[in-house]
Design a protein that fits this description.
This protein is α/β, with parallel strands linked by helices. Helix content is about 40%, strand content about 15%. It is built from 14 helices and twelve strands. It has a six-stranded parallel β-sheet with strand order 2-1-3-4-5-6, sandwiched between helices. Helix 14 links the parallel strand 11 and strand 12. The longest helix has 16 residues. The chain starts with a helix and ends with a strand.
Length: about 325
């Protein structure tokens, strides 16, 4: 019934409007964001549930492997069956959905990264020369590290809206509420430390072909090393803040509580902006949106990461070198 409603809504929207904002569901939040951009929401990711992972069917997949080594052959077959995204097997039929838009414009703020349905939709949309495709920045790592998603988005979009100053010909600056709402926020200045955590989606996420687990593994490992080197008085002041999507990483939380029983675990029930007001120091080892928000809010902060993890862009070397001198950034 829900899909029927969304199909009907999309068909009517296509008739009466030409400028759209891609969303994964129709809600008060997505309606607000769309109207704020003076656009109408277009719900592309409507089949997010799809079919379940089917082990029995995957075992029947025939793969030609040109190797006489039995171990290599069996390993490749097993890995292929496990890693093949559901969107290209169990849910392949959903990729064929196409609204056939013409003389239209669409904006995406990240769904094209996480949904193969949206990827195929945009590929079909881009085939029509009269259509225009815009992308909003949707993360914190842009422009300050070598970022393959950023390079791809610059090449595929007609206009890329960045939160910071444009550096490419097809970029324009967009003062996102994600950032500007944090400018010099008033603080309660409690003597505590906040460390936001970052987790990937569940490994077999239904509609994505992206695997980025190694990045998060290294982040969590480095965070543990950092905590291990702090004294007991400092550990008592620390709160690890989980994102709303981090509930499925309970094993790591149990591990942290076992090793550092005095650390507080926050499940992010308040907004990050409200949380930030209650701390006097921000610490992170990931270059994400929260780092930009913290720096905009003017809270004292320390951040660090491996040199081979986030490779800094030459255009921003000067800024990061200044932060190193101030002992805010450790690389």
């Amino acid at each position: 019934k829900n899909n029927l409603f969304i199909d009907t809504y999309n068909s009517l929207a296509k008739i009466f409007f030409k400028d759209f904002y891609i969303v994964d569901q129709l809600s008060i939040n997505t309606l607000y964001n769309s109207f704020k951009m003076k656009r109408v929401p277009l719900c592309i990711n409507k089949y997010i549930v799809g079919k379940r992972f089917d082990k029995n069917k995957r075992k029947k997949i025939q793969i030609k492997i040109f190797s006489k080594d039995k171990f290599i052959t069996s390993s490749i077959k097993e890995l292929f069956n496990l890693l093949l995204p559901k969107s290209y097997f169990e849910n392949y039929h959903l990729l064929k959905k196409d609204l056939r838009l013409k003389n239209s414009t669409i904006i995406s703020d990240g769904l094209h990264i996480h949904s193969d349905i949206v990827k195929i939709f945009i590929a079909n949309f881009k085939k029509v020369k009269s259509n225009k495709y815009f992308i909003l920045q949707h993360g914190g790592g842009y422009l300050c590290k070598y970022h393959s998603s950023h390079e791809l988005e610059l090449k595929t979009s007609d206009v890329f809206y960045s939160w910071g100053k444009p550096i490419a010909k097809n970029e324009k600056q967009f003062n996102s509420p994600h950032i500007k709402n944090f400018v010099n926020i008033s603080k309660l200045l409690d003597d505590k430390i906040i460390i936001p955590l970052y987790f990937p989606r569940k490994y077999t996420h239904n509609m994505t072909s992206i695997i980025g687990g190694k990045q998060y593994e290294e982040n969590l490992s480095d965070l543990y090393i950092f905590l291990r080197n702090l004294n007991a008085d400092i550990l008592k002041k620390i709160t690890l803040r989980l994102p709303p999507s981090g509930k499925h990483i309970l094993d790591f939380i149990k591990f942290i509580k076992n090793k550092f029983p005095n650390i507080i675990i926050s499940h992010g029930k308040r907004s990050f902006k409200e949380d930030l007001k209650r701390y006097s120091l921000f610490v992170t080892n990931t270059y994400a949106t929260t780092l930009l928000q913290a720096s905009t809010s003017n809270i004292p902060m320390i951040f660090f990461w491996r040199k081979n993890h986030y490779r800094l862009n030459q255009k921003t070397d000067f800024i990061f070198n200044q932060l190193k001198k101030k002992k805010m950034f450790y690389h």
